[in-house]
Amino acid sequence: MSQTIKYYQFKGILLSEGWLTPGFVGVDEVGNIQYISDVRPESVAIEAVHGYALPGFQNAHSHAFQYAMAGMAEKHAAGSKDDFWSWREAMYHCALSLDPDQVEAVAAMLYAEMLRKGYTHVAEFHYLHHDKNGQTYSNLAEMGERLVAAAKTAGIKITLIPVFYQKGGFGQEPQPRQRRFISSTVDEYFHLLDDSATIVADNAHATLGFSVHSLRAVDARDIVSTFEQGPKNIPFHLHAAEQLKEVSDCLAHLKQRPVEWLLNNLPVDDRFHIVHCTHMTDDETIELAKSGANAVLCPGTEGNLGDGIFNLTTFARHEGSWSIGTDSHISLNPLEDLRWLDYAQRFTTHKRNTFDDGASILIQKTLLAGRKAMGTIPANYFAIGNSFDAVVYNAKAPLLAQADINHLLPAILYTSDSGDTLGTLVQGKWIVKNQHHARAERITSSFLQAVKRLAL
Ligand code: ZN
Predict the structure, then answer these.
(1) Would you say the pTM of this structure is higher than 0.85?
(2) Distance between CA atoms of 111 and 332, rounded to whole angstroms?
């Protein structure tokens, strides 16, 4: 029996080797690509889209609940010292306030907005595990299940990454306000991971990663045990070296800097997705690049929290891999975060050529490492048999309309905002079209009710 193929025509579609113009794509009933060519297929109905299709972006680092407070911690009292650590207190307050229904509503809104801005897959770095008193839910992975449900409602793919969070700081017992995060032992964490795996197995749009929060939040021996005893075929995520105080505490406690310690104590390779890596020496930067690990960079949040600037110039020169994440979700536009990555380097080097071909390298490397961070997606996007996940930029936007093929990708990266998208497709179907998410009304109304009850 022949299957039904749905055909699209784009003004252009970005392949790993460059633009295909025009780009004809045929997808089967489950949303996988069965036809991709610049030749028009004969005698079939084709939906013509006057736009340029890029692969959907992967958001490699998300704490969904923090979306409830994005933009709400920007009033700085005169004379106060507002930094990462004071922001963290506000974040703990938010974390202690949310029940499962609220988390699901906030996450669905966040994921719908991610889709509107061009993300089609999110890695949810999830540590809000327990109830408000710190007791486990009867379903150990209740909160993870809510995040997977929120992703389904929104139509985004999710890699659920349950996080092992054990300590209040290097060598310190957890504080009461961290009670919702805590697994006391490696075994306790693996129970949580097993239950999360069951949920993921029941949901086609979900996959699993595993994680320790950071060197400060898990005992060093338990970090090693978690990695060694953990699954061998899924990505491993953790935070490292986001803050200067974290580096100095790590030096005091472990006698090494965070990334240095990881490189010396774990078999760091391309299964590792290390979030931030803001504060590294040149040696650490080069060794991390050579290891094949993926640095997960979150420039919007890192800027907002005053973390510092990742040394991307050196890292890229040594063939380092990186992806992007929106972390606290203060910014959600992938192009804005990619521009931040490049411009932060330009600010500090006083040069414009961070990379030889900025747009192409920034986008392609981000996509490839982003897909790896999700754990399941093959490296080559837009190929026969792959799911068709794309964000489409409006070819009528003035600066895209006038760009020739050589300048098209830089014009998209450096000039477009979210208003320049025509829509986002996941598994071959429009989830967002003309800025409108099909379930926007329901998702928005649940979100507003949830945050109203929060009164942060
Ligand atoms: Zn984070």
Answers:
(1) yes
(2) 10
